[in-house]
């Protein structure tokens, strides 16, 4: 043997296991030596965060706005033969087409006095809460399960700030629904308003007298043909004058002016006075409207 020692016995190097596939009496069960990892079953429906974690390692890997989510949604749209989504509700609908559920429980819409006429326990619970003057937060999951049938031409008041809903619940007045956008209307807010619009409701909107508030009012008006609710130039002048008489500190109106499309006088009036007025400045007037649902406003608009 070239370079070998004929007297050396062939032994295994230390630590090298003997390849013996047989199971000998007294040996430990080889199946119990190491845990067997079965492949994780693929669910019929994925949560988007769950799918993102599995594929990217991060629960936020498929969040709206990421390059990967845009690519995946474009692929789903091509596979389904539909248009690429243009807004958040369309993106959610497209995810669901692929059996992926976006987060439908963390975002809510604040409501008060919502009395759908459906016969399931969900609708009954809403009517009971309304009868007891309790506000209700609804998730997207709940909205998808509700039968939002209401009498035709039901008047729905829409406000921007939660304090209006809180105060309405405190006073226990009003019989018409009140929906809060909680700032810029999110997908869950639009989902509820879309359903109420489809049920034949009409809308009246009030928000902040600042430029973002005017922009939001324009969007709500466009989407739902909402009437202004104490949102005309005369309303703004009245509130500004009242605030000055009460000695209320003034908040300067900043930013780029936005045209109020429902009243050509409102934007010039706001620009001239230069005062931002948040919705709470009109709270007593809004509560009066919600309590009576009739009457004449300084601008001539009925709630």
From TrEMBL:
Residues 44-116 form the Conserved hypothetical protein CHP02679 N terminus domain. Pfam families: DUF2399 (PF09664), DUF3323 (PF11796). InterPro entries: CHP02679_N, DUF2399. It comes from the Bacteria. Residues 1-63 are annotated as: Disordered. Residues 136-290 form the DUF2399 domain. Residues 17-27 have a biased composition (Basic and acidic residues). This is DUF2399 domain-containing protein. It comes from Streptomyces avermitilis. The lineage of its organism: Bacteria, Bacillati, Actinomycetota, Actinomycetes, Kitasatosporales.
